[in-house]
Write a structure and sequence with these properties.
The protein has 203 residues and is an alpha/beta fold. The chain has a single domain, classed as P-loop containing nucleotide triphosphate hydrolases (Rossmann fold, 3-Layer(aba) Sandwich). 57% of the residues lie in helices and 12% in strands. It contains eight helices and five strands, in the order E-H-E-H-H-E-H-H-E-H-H-E-H. The protein has a five-stranded parallel β-sheet with strand order 2-3-1-4-5, with helices on both faces.
């Protein structure tokens, strides 16, 4: 079974992926942040590096989904291939940080790749306000994220909400995270109970 956790920057995807994988005894697949050769450059000059970054993520996540399906294991994935195509790339294009030529090229590539993969059995969307995102980004203290602007997070949030409102690829569970702390056992158990309820409906 393949569960995927979606959500904006700082919504708690990695933390929840790690904790749920440990609790359920499933294998986690994390977003390739530390080894990404474009991320630092992107936050320094978004216009120059936006296309390179998005193609890197697209390739990385396509490879991940292929491996997940091949493995036959129960896996929890931190972020999905669909978020890049429905949220991040269109947002960069609309902000004039990715040219129309590059965006069309990227979109055609995504369309081709997505025809070869299956969506997750359950998508878990972490809904968070911009103030929660900012607080959690500051808490984890990644240097290259210090320059992220509030308006950028707000635009991403709007795109996430639009995408989720029309998501029809599979089962969907929405978790409001503003008043949750996944590191608190009682809060984590609330989320795991909800996820378990959805999982049992899939068998």
């Amino acid at each position: 079974m393949h569960l995927a956790i979606a959500g904006n920057i700082g919504s708690g995807k990695t933390t929840l992926t790690r904790l749920m994988a440990k609790h359920l005894g499933w294998k986690p697949h994390f977003e390739d942040v530390d080894n990404n050769p474009y991320l630092h450059s992107f936050y320094e000059d978004m216009q120059r590096w936006s296309f390179n970054l998005q193609v890197y993520f697209l390739n990385s996540r396509f490879r991940q989904v292929v491996e997940i399906r091949k493995s036959g294991q129960n896996i929890i994935q931190d972020r999905t291939i669909y978020e890049d195509a429905n949220i991040f790339a269109p947002n960069l294009h609309s902000m004039n940080l990715m040219s129309s030529r590059d965006f069309e090229n990227y979109s055609a590539l995504f369309e081709l790749m997505s025809s070869f993969i299956e969506p997750p059995d359950l998508l878990i969307y972490l809904r968070a306000s911009v103030s929660t995102l900012v607080e959690q980004i500051q808490t984890r203290g990644r240097e290259y994220e210090e320059s992220i602007r509030l308006d950028y997070l707000k635009l991403l949030n709007e795109r996430y909400e639009n995408w989720i409102s029309s998501y029809t690829l599979g089962k969907l569970l929405i978790i409001d995270v503003d008043n949750l702390n996944f590191n608190k056992p009682e809060d984590l158990s609330i989320v795991i109970d909800k996820v378990n309820g959805e999982i049992h409906g899939l068998f």
